[in-house]
Design brief:
- The complex is a heterodimer.
- Chain A is built from eight helices and 20 strands.
- By secondary structure, chain A is of the alpha+beta class.
- Chain A folds into two domains: 4-231, P-loop containing nucleotide triphosphate hydrolases (Rossmann fold), CATH 3.40.50.300; 238-351, OB fold (Dihydrolipoamide Acetyltransferase, E2P), CATH 2.40.50.100.
- In chain A, the strands form four sheets. A six-stranded mixed sheet of chain A has the order 6-7-8-3-9-10, sandwiched between helices. Chain A has a five-stranded antiparallel sheet with strand order 13-12-11-14-20, with no helix packed on it. A five-stranded antiparallel sheet of chain A has the order 15-19-16-17-18, with no helix packed on it.
- In chain A, a hairpin with a 3-residue loop joins strand 16 (297-307) and strand 17 (311-318).
- Chain A is elongated and about 80 Å long.
- Chain B has a single domain (61-265), classed as MetI-like (MetI-like fold), CATH 1.10.3720.
- Chain B starts with 6 loop residues before the first helix and ends in a 10-residue tail after the last helix.
- Chain B has helices at residues 7-34, 52-59, 61-92, 100-112, 115-128, 135-160, 163-171, 176-184, 189-205, 208-213, 221-231, 235-256.
- Classes of the chains: A alpha+beta, B mainly alpha.
- Bound molecules: adenosine-5'-triphosphate (ATP) and magnesium ion (MG).
- Residues 42-43 of chain A line the site of magnesium ion (MG).
């Protein structure tokens, strides 16, 4: 059992907090990704847990015991670095065996465990090479093997795939997830790639300006962002500034003269709110006469349509002059032909609208 | 780095390089050439062709003694310099060390202070202490003079090294000391040896310091040369100097070996 518990963690450089009162718990065997823009404090968080940075205040606990007074080499936390940090003067085998050697593991056992680990990351054939003779992906796997051979209960990853090309990343990501499930270690994985963050995670911790702004499963982060910035961080979205009005004694939204009805509760006496809608939740329809006054149906003109194979990304200029982004899925059976300049209707399902403050 | 030169520059470039080469190499050619002359005075091109000056030097025990002295003090001096320079470089190459710029400048000071001033200062200090410069005082002075060269190369090498290496080793259970000995230092050893070679050559060739600080009973090679030149310039000197060039070339071959070939996975 290894719960990683982070409470009130703060790190100030001068007066500027790089990490501001961050609190969350990673449960045993869980993989949590930390997502945020550059400078949001992800690395600071990870390095505080690892022990490379001494936090200004707050605590890091594993199974209830504080790590803060433990030196780095006694924390028993595995770390996989962004630039791999393989020891250049040692072979792959020596790199992977280093932690065991430090722990004075018997020669034959060391060899056996290193071999097993190399096999696990499919690098047995490269055991006697130096790191400089390996590809980036192979180096990454050595770094992983080097951390995992010690069977740590907690492993930290600082953007480990960011130097690799997209194809390789997808494969490595799947392998890592499988390995993590099988070995059951608790993992904290820093990334600024939202696809990676969502694909890997049990839960995503979203950071902004040193603060944890949302923590939850990927679906929740994606569909119910807590704020505009979180919505923007996780892919494309429509963020419509709406006035809050009233009709039949219930609050309604008005987006530049276009009435919108939403299932999401609208906060009372909010003058203005943002309606958040993912482009793939919008539906393109044939245009309807006199739609302007009908709630949730927008009529407009297609101003751009980017075809991506499985989907098209369509920008519709609504009657009120505002652009709206629609992702239309394609399949071979039913295919709409949406060309630039066409008049179309865009239906916004009421359950697709989230109200952000 | 790839320099793309414009056409006129591309033509001038080889000329300049050639000029520098001639400027640097021609004195050496003259020097070595005069060592083979059969005359008893220096002349170039050499008249005749003999190795007798070399055999004379190699058979004269005073030359051998001086060479041995130089070897010993140069080795001791540059090793002593390492003892100071390596720990200093280890600290100064870390980021966020207070006053590191000031300390770096201080360590570099011996390069900037004229050698003669330095030696006079040392002698005056011994005077104030009311003592004659001790034997090991020579080694100490040479260590001070060569410390900057070792420190410089070590600081450069260490600050180029990925700080993640040390962190990785520590995350794998190594203590900081262990991480340094097993991981960091092996990756800068080539730079160290090139710095050491440089320091050694400088200490070996140093004239002013031993001239003032060592008694007449302890001549070093440059001092011995200097004293002979003072009263007559024979081709013997050229022969000694030629041998010195050979030694320097041998040591420099180690020094020049590109430390960047020590592959660091950055
Ligand atoms: N040693 C330091 N001294 C002063 N400020 C620092 C230091 N390290 C980090 N910071 C600041 O703290 C903030 C958070 O930095 P951090 O490296 O944690 O960001 P990050 O989320 O990892 O960004 P990236 O995605 O670019 O790696 C930044 O504003 C940075 O400028
Ligand atoms: Mg970072």
């Amino acid at each position: 059992m290894s719960d990683l518990e982070i409470t009130g963690l703060t790190k100030r450089y001068g007066t500027e907090p790089a990490l501001d009162d961050v609190t969350f718990t990673v449960s045993d065997g869980e993989l949590v990704t930390v997502l945020g823009h550059s400078g949001s404090g992800k690395t600071t968080l990870l390095r505080s847990v690892a022990g490379f940075i001494e936090p200004t205040s707050g605590d890091v606990r594993v199974n209830g015991n504080s790590l803060l007074n433990l030196p780095i080499n006694r924390r028993g936390i595995g770390i996989v670095f962004q630039n791999y940090a393989l020891f250049p003067h040692m072979t792959v085998r020596q790199n992977v065996g280093y932690g065991l050697r430090v722990r004075r593991v018997r020669k034959d056992e060391l060899r056996e465990r290193v071999d097993r680990e190399l096999e696990r990351v499919q690098l047995s054939a490269y055991a006697d090479r130096k790191p400089a003779q390996l590809s980036g992906g192979q180096q990454q796997r050595v770094a992983l093997a080097r951390a995992l051979v010690l069977e740590p209960s907690i492993v930290l990853f600082d953007e480990p795939f960011s130097n690799l090309d997209a194809m390789l990343r997808d494969g490595l990501r799947r392998d890592l997830r499988q390995l993590q499930r099988r070995l059951g270690f608790t993992a904290l994985f820093v990334t600024h790639d939202q696809r990676e963050a969502m694909a890997l995670a049990d839960r995503v911790a979203v950071m902004r300006s040193g603060r944890l702004v949302q923590y939850g499963p990927p679906q929740e982060i994606y569909n119910r962002p807590s704020q505009v910035e979180v919505a923007a961080l996780l892919g494309r979205s429509n963020l419509l500034r709406c006035l809050v009005g009233e009709r039949d004694a219930t609050p309604v939204l008005e987006w530049r003269g276009q009435p919108l009805v939403a299932d999401d509760p609208i906060p009372a006496h909010a003058g203005e709110v943002t309606a958040f809608i993912r482009p793939e939740n919008l539906v393109i329809e044939p245009p309807v006469e006199g739609a302007a006054s009908r709630p949730n149906v927008i009529t407009g003109r297609v101003v751009s349509a980017d075809y991506f194979g499985s989907a098209s990304l369509i920008t519709v200029e609504a009657g009120n002059g505002e652009p709206i982004l629609v992702e239309a899925r394609h399949n071979a059976l039913s295919d709409q032909d949406i060309s630039v300049g066409a008049q179309v209707g865009v239906r916004i399902p009421r359950e697709a609208i989230r109200i952000l403050g | 780095m790839i320099l793309r030169l414009r056409r006129p520059t591309r033509l001038i470039f080889p000329v300049v390089v050639a000029a520098i080469m001639v400027f640097l190499v021609s004195p050496l050619v003259v020097l070595v050439g005069t060592a083979f002359t059969t005359t008893s005075y220096l002349t170039f091109p050499p008249k005749g062709w003999t190795l007798s000056w070399f055999t004379q030097v190699l058979q004269d025990p005073t030359w051998g003694y001086a060479a041995l002295n130089s070897l010993v003090i140069a080795a001791a001096g540059s090793l002593l310099a390492s003892v100071v320079a390596i720990p200093a470089a280890v600290v100064l190459s870390r980021r966020g060390v207070r006053a590191s710029n000031t300390v770096t400048t201080l360590i570099m000071a011996p390069i900037m202070v004229p050698g003669i001033m330095f030696v006079l200062g040392v002698m005056l200090s011994y005077n104030r202490l009311d003592m004659a410069p001790p034997q090991w005082g020579l080694v100490l002075a040479l260590a001070v003079l060569t410390t900057p060269y070792i420190a410089r190369t070590m600081i450069a090498a260490l600050s180029q090294l990925d700080p993640g290496l040390e962190e990785a080793a520590m995350s794998l259970g190594a203590s900081r000391a262990r991480a340094w000995v097993q991981i960091v230092l092996p990756n800068v050893s080539k730079s160290y040896f090139s710095g050491l070679a440089l320091a050694f050559i400088l200490a070996f060739d140093e004239l002013v310091v031993p001239l003032f600080l060592a008694g007449p009973s302890f001549p070093t090679l440059p001092v011995r040369i200097y004293r002979s030149v003072a009263f007559d310039v024979s081709p013997e000197i050229s022969a000694v100097s030629s041998l010195l060039v050979v030694v320097a070339v041998v040591v420099a071959t180690f020094a020049v070996r590109d430390p960047s070939t020590a592959k660091t996975a950055r």
